Amino acid sequence: MSRHDDRADAGRVRMPADVDAPDKVLYGLTFRQLAILAVAALAFYGVWRALHQVVPAPVLVGAAVVGGGLVFGVAVGRRDGLPLDGWLLAAVRHARAPRALSTTDTTSKTPDWVQAPTTRVMLPAPLKLPADAIDDGGEIRLGAARAAMVATTNVNLALRTGDEQAALVDTFGRWLNSLSTPTQIVVSAQPVDLHSAARSLAHAAMQLPHPALTDAASDHARFLDDLAARKDPLRRQVLIVTGTSAGERGEHTARRRADDTVRALAGLGVTTRALDGPAVTAALAAAADPYRPPRPGGLAAPDTVITSPTPHRRHRHGRSRPT
């Protein structure tokens, strides 16, 4: 090993991957797991004290073994990266949650002239969203607070040298240390619509000046179409959400922090941009339904006034003139 590698290794600190893992308290179990087992043990002891003179002891012991095994599995088991007890609690909440939600007022009574249904009808529950509005600049109104979004690309540290990696980590660390409000980094996989790209490429191939270029473009369009039919291509999307506190004053504060984030991350060699109103609307719509293909032309912001094309007036001679 060279002297340069020794200096590089001396400045590194080995950090475990599970830094958010809870601490082990006793026998490799966390406090939450010990609490679940302790409550179950007290419950089994209470059942034993109440039924040991009525029910035969082997029956109680067998029930205790089966119940203890189930409780131990719930306490130490995991599914989908979550503790099994939390996963079961989330499943119960999901089963009891209303299936239909509405942004309109659902507490109003039915008028007297409307015939009441004979069977019970499930009414939609009120839909309470944290965001109230999105302005043209891309600021999201969250009650008294504001938020803005920054879209960025990623960087591959494995292809950089040791000095370059240290410089990139130092730049990213300076940006993290400069944060004074809650900031969210969202990394997601979004589907890519290769069919539209293949159609556009095939249409543009017919306008190329040379037959060889036309054949190459058409062949690539067929490759994209076949790839979209056989695979599910995905792209990685990285969004940074900068926000303000509830008591913080000042207009467009979240937008200015988004611009500061763009300037701070420019040293990483990534492409960053602060999203405007339509781009923020499209990002939120994609997060709510990531498997829906993007709409042509994008989505309008919630407060945008949508108008129809200007109608044409037809004159007597059959020619139309815009009004």
From TrEMBL:
Keyword Translocase: no
UniProt region (Disordered), positions on chain: 289-323
Regions that span the bilayer: 34-51, 57-76
Record keywords, A-Z: Membrane, Transmembrane, Transmembrane helix
Biased composition (Basic residues): 311-323
Domain of life per record: Bacteria
Protein name, entry field: PrgI family protein
